[in-house]
Write a structure and sequence with these properties.
heterodimer; A: alpha/beta; three-stranded mixed beta sheet; B: 280 residues
């Protein structure tokens, strides 16, 4: 017999293991995108996810992936809800997520400072560790990243913006 | 643009209408039709501006700027989707975000005219981004306190995104205004062309007044001073002059638009109307 707690644990693990389609080393739990998982007595799973940015095109893929992952874990009746509040922040990213990002070659976000705009003075190159870096563009390959270059090793790199 | 808004960004946000209950605080209770109308205005501003920004992709002065303006457009499109989806839900007539974006005619759009103006050159685009982002930043900061929970939630996300747009516009205004003679001339010319459309952003009307009384909307007049003070401070640092003109164009909130709006809608709506329900 499956206890409700075991059932919830299984659903949670399945949903939490879904990878972000654009940064495929991070799970949606690492990112802080997964907000809530609940299972009702009838076995219906309700999952709440929150977008990183309003226009994040990955949300549809994440929704499908969560549904598939739950289905593979034996939950065929699933609702994936998008919640906007409270607004996502990079402060929700786990330390494990930040470590994985750095290993992947993306500089993880700094802790957010108060005020509307985060000013980046100097960032360390994720490849060689040099602080001799400069921002090439405020905006990178996805809404959540900016593009930097290391002036020592000459490699460009993505920076996950504090948001 | 893609044929369905839901192909371009996330969808189906939890956007149930929230009825602000003003009885406990002495605030008036907002009519649902007013809230729908307000969400439509905000959504149309974001949608039309997103369409304009997407027009820069592959046409900006440098590759990084293609990416930047495309990303800004994507933020705006995401905001538009939340707001239009909510407007449709509150309206209760069964219209979804795609119906509102693609199946309305020009006179039914209630965006301010400044958002629909053609992109012009890069100087004009940056001038517009400086002014509209400063406006939106003040607006959304205020709306995070809205008594309408959905509008407050959309605003809490949007304010962070718009802050980044504002920073981008600020950096470019300084570079262009303080750059070469040619970049300075283009920045100034862009501002001069934009200026007659700025005042409309800060106009109020009966709908706004009712929603301000209900604690749902931000009074645009109340944010004019801080929004334009920021713009003036950037222009001063960029050695660009604040244009002096008494010409004012208005009417967008009543569905009156410039000639350029028809061309924008033709391009934006063509595919969806020719192939209803098309997806890829």
């Amino acid at each position: 017999m499956v206890t409700p707690t075991a059932s919830l644990e299984r659903a949670r693990t399945a949903a939490a293991g879904v990878l972000d389609p654009e940064v495929p080393v991070l799970t949606i739990e690492d990112l802080g995108v997964l907000r809530e998982v609940s299972v009702d007595p009838g076995g219906h799973v309700d999952v709440a996810i929150t977008p990183t940015y309003s226009g994040c095109p990955a949300m549809d893929a994440i929704r499908d992936d969560v549904t598939s992952a739950l289905s593979a874990a034996g939950f065929s009746d699933t609702t994936v809800r998008l919640v906007l509040s409270p607004a996502w922040t990079t402060d929700w990213m786990s330390d494990e997520g930040k470590r994985k990002l750095l290993e992947y070659g993306i500089l993880p976000p700094q802790k957010r400072s108060p005020g509307p705009v985060v000013l980046q003075l100097s960032l360390r190159c994720p490849q060689c560790g040099s602080a001799a870096t400069r921002e090439l563009s405020h905006f990178g390959s996805t809404a959540c990243k900016s593009l930097w270059v290391c002036t020592d090793c000459r490699e460009p790199f993505d920076h996950f913006k504090a948001h | 643009m893609t044929p369905s808004l839901s192909d371009a960004a996330s969808s189906d946000a939890d956007l149930r209408p929230t009825r602000p209950s003003g009885t406990a605080t002495g605030l008036a209770t907002a009519e649902q039709s007013d809230i729908a109308g307000y969400a439509l205005r905000l959504g149309d501003d974001a949608l039309i501006y997103a369409q304009r920004m997407s027009g820069w992709i592959a046409a900006a002065p440098q590759l990084e700027e293609d990416v930047a303006l495309g990303n800004i457009g994507l933020d705006l499109l995401g905001q538009a989707r939340s707001l239009l989806g909510y407007a449709g839900t509150v309206e209760g007539a069964g219209r979804d975000e795609d119906d509102l974006a693609y199946l309305r005619d020009e006179r039914d759009f209630v965006n301010a005219q400044i958002f629909e103006l053609g992109n012009g050159d890069f100087g004009f685009t940056i001038a517009r981004m400086l002014v509209t982002s400063s406006y939106q930043h003040e607006l959304y900061a205020g709306l995070t306190e809205s008594r309408d929970a959905t509008i407050a939630a959309v605003a809490a996300k949007a304010v962070k995104e718009v802050a980044y747009h504002l920073d981008h516009a600020t950096q470019w205004t300084l570079r262009l205004g303080d750059g070469t003679d040619e970049s300075h001339r283009r920045m100034q010319r862009g501002l001069d062309a934009l200026w007659p459309y700025v005042a409309e952003l800060f106009e109020s009307d009966d709908l706004i007044a009712r929603l301000v009384a209900a604690g749902v909307a931000v009074d645009p007049e109340s944010i004019a001073t801080p929004a334009m003070a920021y713009v003036a401070s950037v222009l001063a640092r960029a050695s660009v002059e604040v244009p002096q003109t008494h010409v004012r164009h208005t009417g967008g909130r009543r569905g009156v638009h410039t000639e350029q709006m028809g061309y924008l809608l033709a391009e934006m709506q063509y595919l969806h109307r020719s192939h209803p329900g098309a997806t890829w």
